[in-house]
Amino acid sequence: MERYAIIIKTDGVCVLLHCYHGDCLSLEEMQKIVEGHIQAVPTALAQGWSQEPGVGLALIVNEEGKLQNLPVNQTATDLSAAYNDVIVGNAILLGTTDEDFIGLTERAAQNIMKKWELGVC
Question: How far, in Å, CA of 101 to CA of 120, rounded?
Fold first, then answer.
């Protein structure tokens, strides 16, 4: 099954990225997108948004983004469960299981982008 990640850039542009090497992006790919070490942040989206049993959602962000003075990512902040806080830098929306990150199905990714008006892929 083909899997996808939703890249949420600080300028509000969102892009659907195909997970070419398996079910998820590699650590190196995630670090390149967020421009540093990664940290998983819970989302405000319920597990049902993944459209797969046992798959939740997480935002992958730069662990040291605030220390690096990265710009605020309002779209990612709106999707996060980080109340009274902000997400900075580029973010990646992925599925998560008990142990691993996993890309979203194309249907789930397209549905999230459409319902949350995240832009055009």
Answer: 24
Each of the 121 residues of the chain gets a pLDDT tens digit; together they read 889 999 999 998 999 999 977 789 999 999 999 999 999 999 998 888 888 898 999 999 999 999 999 999 999 999 998 788 999 999 999 999 988 999 999 999 999 988 887 764 4
Q: Is 107 helix (H, G, I), strand (E, B) or coil?
A: helix
Handedness of CA 63, 8, 72, 97 (dihedral sign): negative
Q: How far is CA 22 from the centre of its chain?
A: 17
Amino acid at 82: A
For residue 7, CA distances in Å to 25, 43, 53, 94 come to: 11, 14, 23, 9
pTM check: above 0.70 = yes
23: phi then psi, degrees, rounded to nearest 5: -85, -5
Helix extents (H) in the chain: 27-34, 74-79, 106-115
d(CA 115, CA 39): 25
